[in-house]
């Protein structure tokens, strides 16, 4: 049984954490396999979007507490002295990653989820940060991404208490973009992924790079950088012929989808 399963169909890759007996906890082997999967899929021409999910009943319970509490302390300390292969819990990539959160996403599992570009949640999903309860300090982006998504006060509340929030609360706070019935989760994630892959991959990747670059800037510096990148694109890479050929289809799609926006809790 593969600990990380990968399937590719119709330009969409589905990556499934497959350790259900341990609630898909992150072991050293799982993190290595996940890194490899994301890196390899990012390099494939037949993949325009990636969906990350977990084998039921959980998305990911975080790092394996059994290993964390029993492995030799000297081994743990030596690992902290090793060079980082990348920041966060996902290697650098350009392909959009959709988090399909099928159940609890806790601590390191929540950090992994927040490495995705955005999250769609099952109504069975729950979210918590228990770093403080476990006695460790976040190192996978919790103190960066969680305040960005839900605001600093709510982030502190989650991290200081270790309390769980529901999928509905996660939607209301801005952690997830929508909540769907559990049995509809993968269908909905694939539909959103299909919308992404209907656009030339080079265009989506460029916009994604722009978002990433803007995260590092603030104020007038961000506005100036965005304007510079946009002007360079329009001067050098804009495909006017493609737009002329697809203009009517783009307008029609916008009209037909106008009533389907803003999905909240099911």
Terminal CA distance reads 33 Å
Largest sheet: 6 strands, mixed
Radius of gyration: 19 Å
Question: Beta-strand level of the residues, as a percent range?
Answer: 5-15%
Text of the CATH class of the largest domain? Alpha Beta
Query: What do the pLDDT scores average to?
Result: 89
Say which CATH homologous superfamily of the largest domain is assigned.
2-enoyl-CoA Hydratase, Chain A, domain 1
Query: Count of DSSP helices?
Result: 12
CATH architecture annotation name of the largest domain: Alpha-Beta Complex
Total strands: 9
Widest sheet, order of strands: 1-2-3-4-6-9
CATH topology of the largest domain: 2-enoyl-CoA Hydratase, Chain A, domain 1
* Structural domains: how many: 2
**N-to-C SSE string, H for helix and E for strand:** EEHEHHEEHEEHHHEHEHHHH
Q: How much helicity do the residues have?
A: 40-55%
Net shape: globular
Structural class: alpha/beta
Uncertain parts: none
Structure write-up:
With about 270 residues, the chain is an alpha/beta fold. α6 (about 140-150) packs across α7 (about 150-160). It has helices spanning about 30-40, 65-70, 75-80, 110-115, 130-135, 140-150, 150-160, 165-175, 185-195, 200-215, 220-235, 240-255, and strands at about 5-10, 10-15, 50-55, 95-100, 105, 120, 125-130, 165, 180. Helix content is about 50%, strand content about 15%. The strands form two sheets. Strands 1-2-3-4-6-9 form a six-stranded mixed beta sheet, with helices on both faces. The chain has two domains: about 5-195, 2-enoyl-CoA Hydratase, Chain A, domain 1, CATH 3.90.226.10; about 200-255.
């Amino acid at each position: 049984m593969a600990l990380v399963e990968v399937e590719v169909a119709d330009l969409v890759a589905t990556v499934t954490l497959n350790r259900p007996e341990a609630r898909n906890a992150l072991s050293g082997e799982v993190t290595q396999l996940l890194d490899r999967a994301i890196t390899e899929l990012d390099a494939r021409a037949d993949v325009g979007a990636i969906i990350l999910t977990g084998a039921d009943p959980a998305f990911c319970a975080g790092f394996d507490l059994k290993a964390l509490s029993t492995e030799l302390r000297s081994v743990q300390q030596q690992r902290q002295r090793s060079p980082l292969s990348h920041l966060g819990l996902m290697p650098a990539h350009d392909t959009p990653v959709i988090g399909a959160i099928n159940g609890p996403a806790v601590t390191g599992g929540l950090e992994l989820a927040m490495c995705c570009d955005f999250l769609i949640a099952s109504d069975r999903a729950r979210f918590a940060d228990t770093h403080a309860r476990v006695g460790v300090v976040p190192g996978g982006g919790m103190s960066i991404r969680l305040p960005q998504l839900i605001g600093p006060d709510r982030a502190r509340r989650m991290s200081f208490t270790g309390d769980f929030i529901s999928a509905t609360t996660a939607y209301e706070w801005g952690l997830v973009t929508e909540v769907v019935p559990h049995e509809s989760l993968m269908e909905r994630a694939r539909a959103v992924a299909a919308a992404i892959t209907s656009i030339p991959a080079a265009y989506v990747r460029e916009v994604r790079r722009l978002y990433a670059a803007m995260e590092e800037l603030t104020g007038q510096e961000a506005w100036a950088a965005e304007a510079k990148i946009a002007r360079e694109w329009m001067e050098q890479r804009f495909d006017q012929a493609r737009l002329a050929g697809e203009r009517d289809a783009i307008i029609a799609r916008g009209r037909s989808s106008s009533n389907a926006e803003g999905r909240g809790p099911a």
